[in-house]
Request: fold
Amino acid sequence: MITAPMLCGQKTVELSLPDRVRILAAKPVEPLADPGAAVRRALAEPIGSPPLAELAKGKRSACVVISDFTRPVPNRIILPPLLAVLEEAGIDRERITLLIATGMHRPNLGQELINLVGREIVDGFKIVNHYCRKPEFSRCVGRIEGAPIDINTFYLEAELKVLTGLIEPHMYAGYSGGRKSILPGISSFRTMKFMHSFAMIDHPLVRNCVLEGNPFHEAGLKVMDLVGADFVLNVVISQERRLAGVFAGDPKEAHLAGCRMVQDHSTVRLPERVEMVITSGGGFPLDATFYQVSKGLTIARDMVRKGGTILCLAECREGLGSREFCQVMREGHSPEDFMGYYCVPDNFVIDQWCSQTVFQALAQAGEIHLYAPGLDPGDIERMGMIRVEDPQAAADELAGRHGSMVAVPDGPYVVGLVD
Reply:
């Protein structure tokens, strides 16, 4: 037997599995010995760009876009040296705005905000949450394929625009980071109706670790070109969530360099699809809601045979997710019913895109078994999944009736690419 430590909340669930199960894990990546020095060096010696200090000279205001609480960005390491450079270049602290790219997520407030960036930054700088559903927070700057492009006004009005964030596999954009901080990070709901349309999510190249030909990625680049981005500070973290790579400079070149690192250590090649995939929601904070667990299910979907089986472990301490996502997932659709209804543009609703990825996984797999102690059992049943109370017992029973199997303890942080 072998042991698979499946991420679940802030702990792991140790599953004993047959020796024939292949464990998919990221290649080991060495954390940086002096992460603070690495960040300062990247800001001074960026990729394809003048140093940040040079770009900041003469600017009267700056907007620094940061990720929200769902992304384990080491903000307390990367933000202090970045903000110090801006101040040393002559931008008054009162004219530096940290803008949280919430996308469609809830705002980060109170203790959650302190946990996100640290008390010193909360007390010393202006921090603003993006609200995609409040028109007063955005301004239309153009159109893309007929859809309005509405971007946060704090960002648009800043003389210096800096993007920060984490690069990891992303089920729509190929990789997170870079242009994704703008679209969907600080875009309006009107703009996201285009970016997260049924047709967009249904495109075969809108998937993990694919950039070339990916319309989600390409739309993000177009919008970034339109609204401008002066500098990016993106990072890669190790399995232990320690800083392992810093990529600063030109928003396209630096981001691509980081994507190459992630591809090297976060993807595993498979000769063919397998009968069963055991995966996780990625642990806390990613698996706080089932909404984000869809990422782990997407990883499994792309590896499992048609009619195969998925076993997923995720804590879901905050339940399903947003009110709109709950409403869609509680409608009791079959995958066929969902696709038939929501493929019609006039039926578009908030968060249907995440529901769509869940139903894509349900359509591919014959069964999805879900261990999610934070979810109501009725919700699991309504979603068409099989509730698991004892993950080890479920793994034992399922392994007995499946041949080829893989386990992905880290869930969405490791991508299996089928040849």
The CA atoms of residues 92 and 228 lie 22 Å apart.
